Amino acid sequence: MESNTIKTVFVLTLLLTTYVFSSCSRNPYAATNKSYRKQADHYADILEKYPLEDSNSNAPHFVGTTNFNMRKPNFVIIHHTAQNSCDQTLKTFTLTRTQVSAHYVICQDGTIHHMLNDYLRAWHAGLSKWGNLTDVNSSSIGIELDNDGFQPFADAQINSLLKLLASLKTAYNIPAANFIGHGDIAPTRKNDPNVLFPWKMLAEKGFGNWYDDTTNIQMPFYFDDIQALRIIGYDTKDTTASIIAFKRHWLQDTTPGLTDESKKVLYVLAKKYL
Question: What is the set of domains in the chain, with CATH numbers?
């Protein structure tokens, strides 16, 4: 296949989620869609160079491996927008100066905006950490829900989210444990999608872990709650923040400290991550 053909195929793949081909005249984001195309074309230009111009190879010929594919996401990070409307969020993600983005925005009426190809790196996680992963943006899909963080999530919005998560899980074989919140990976900075988000419902559908009944649990004397938080994935440099993040996700509670009951939940849950 010639170089120009490779480039064309790749650019078309990157642009699957835009509507510029059919509705530029009617789309209020026609101008920023052109910017999307320009950036996609730039990355396609880089990929078609073989070898790269700055390659350190001193071999007389380029030998391209036949065994490769595109990088795939392995995590889904769920956010709330903390803005006034879906339209405001769409505008925020199309202004260069904001330096923030996500792959998907889901409005309260259930409308899903696919803003960036899943194989590309959105800027949604910021300074964050989960287990040993410190560059969450490079291995995740970011989903923003139109919500201020203090109101119940609309049924239509959650229904659309569940359909989207099912599609992503199947497409990229994402493990159930890897559906988490922004507040989980950045406990000192973020609280989204906050305490009203229905994590238990998602877990029942296969998107996230949940804990089993703790009624008859006998806690071992050697239980280390901070180590259990680390096993789940939390950054425990700030133990107060990581405890609150854990309780917000699994107990819908944001008070500091661990009670005997919350320790049981932590103990049971941590075993699922071993």
Answer: 1-68 (no CATH), 75-204 (3.40.80.10), 225-271 (no CATH)
Helix (H, G, I), strand (E, B) or coil at 97: helix
Q: What is the DSSP string of 195-255?
A: TTS-HHHHHHTTSS--PPP-TT----TT--HHHHHHHHT---SSHHHHHHHHHHHHHS---
Mean pLDDT, the chain cut into blocks of 10 residues (274 residues total): 50 50 67 91 83 73 84 96 97 96 98 96 97 97 97 98 98 98 98 98 98 95 97 98 98 96 98 95
Q: Residue 207: how many CB atoms within 10 A of its CB?
A: 23
Specify whether the CB–CB gap between 81 and 91 falls below 8 A.
Answer: no
* Residues carrying an active site annotation: 144
pLDDT at 14: 56
- In contact, 251 and 262? CB cutoff 8 Å: yes
Given this model, what pLDDT does residue 126 score? 96
Give me the residue label for tokens 């964050």.
Answer: 128
